[in-house]
Amino acid sequence: MKQIQLGSVCSGTHRTEDLIPTLADELSTMEFTVEGVELLRQVEKFLGAPNDTLPDWDSEDAIYILDELFNKLDEHAPPHMYFGALEGDGADFGWWPRDFDGCHTIPIEQGKNGEGTFVDTECNLYVEINDHGNTTVKELGGNIIWDCV
Questions:
Q1: What is the CA radius of gyration of the chain?
Q2: What is the rounded distance in angstroms from the CA atom of residue 64 to the CA atom of residue 45?
């Protein structure tokens, strides 16, 4: 299984012919369930249209497959991350951090410039955010789950 890299997987497009193969490639690198295997089979079947005809990228099947790819990838997101469109850029799809609003947190340290350290009691995670917004999410034992600069 590959380690998830924060950032873009596919950008600058909403075309199903660009997104489906790219997202299927991303999913194929994950550890996944039987449903994930079945989804990749559906993608292969869709891409390998009979009689050498091109897939119908605007069909209901294409839209269904694309939605399922987004859902399956998002299921693999680490705590406080999601897979989808970058907020503010709807044509940049990838792994992005979620904000921590609404989380059950206990502040440990809070600076006046927005930096802080807190424990997320729901996920049992330790979170550090510096004054530039750089974020590190760790297990309580200290192992880094993800970070972004």
A1: 18
A2: 13
117 and 103 Cβ atoms separated by less than 8 Å: no
Question: For the packed helices 16-28 and 34-47, what is the interaxial angle rounded to 10 degrees?
Answer: 140
Structure tokens at 55: 């897939």
Q: Coil, helix or strand for 72?
A: helix
**Which of these, 20, 9, 104, lies nearest to 58 by C-alpha position?**
20
Task: Answer yes or no: do 31 and 79 share one domain.
Answer: yes
Report how far residue 107's alpha carbon sits from residue 119's, in angstroms, rounded to the nearest whole number.
7
Q: Which structural domain range is residue 126 located in?
A: 105-139
- The number of domains in the chain is 2
- pLDDT one digit per residue (tens) for the chain, 149 residues: 456 778 899 999 999 999 999 999 998 888 767 788 888 888 888 888 666 677 888 889 999 999 999 999 999 888 888 999 998 888 999 998 877 776 777 777 776 666 778 888 888 888 888 877 788 888 888 888 888 76
Same domain, 70 and 120: no
Cβ–Cβ contacts within 10 Å for residue 53, how many? 7
